[in-house]
Amino acid sequence: MRMGFGLIALLAALAIVAVLAKKQVKATRVAVPPAVQGAASTPDATVRAQSQQIQQQVREQMDALMQQPRPLPDDAQ
After folding, report:
1. Which residues span the domain enclosing 58?
2. pTM score, two decimals?
3. Which pLDDT score, from 0 to 100, does residue 56 have?
């Protein structure tokens, strides 16, 4: 009898986890908005443009950081 309740509890827990996992997977899907006039016609083009913009920003930030002089250590003075 005790084993039967344990099995039922295990199956119930498994069902709850399955339902929650299904909801989580469903929530991670992103709806693609329709193309706006004047914007790129494919979602890949906007993703590519965003990626290139981020790369350019990182490149500019790295260039700015590389131009700053490094402080000398105390023992080198």
Report:
1. 44-69
2. 0.38
3. 94
Domain count across the chain = 1
Calpha distance 67→64 (Å, rounded): 5
Residue 62 resides in a domain? yes
Q: Is 9 inside a domain boundary?
A: no
CA distance readout (Å), 20 to 13, 17, 23, 63, 69? 11, 5, 5, 46, 53
Q: Tokens representing 44? A: 């890949």
Question: What is the chain's pLDDT, residue by residue, as a tens digit (77 residues)?
Answer: 889 999 999 999 999 999 999 998 887 776 555 554 445 455 667 888 889 999 999 999 999 988 988 888 887 55
Longest dimension (CA), the chain: 81
**CA-based nearest residue to 65, from 57, 53, 76, 74:** 57
Question: How far is Cα 49 from Cα 45, in angstroms, rounded to an integer?
Answer: 6
Task: Please indicate, yes or no, if residue 35 is contained in any of the structural domains.
Answer: no
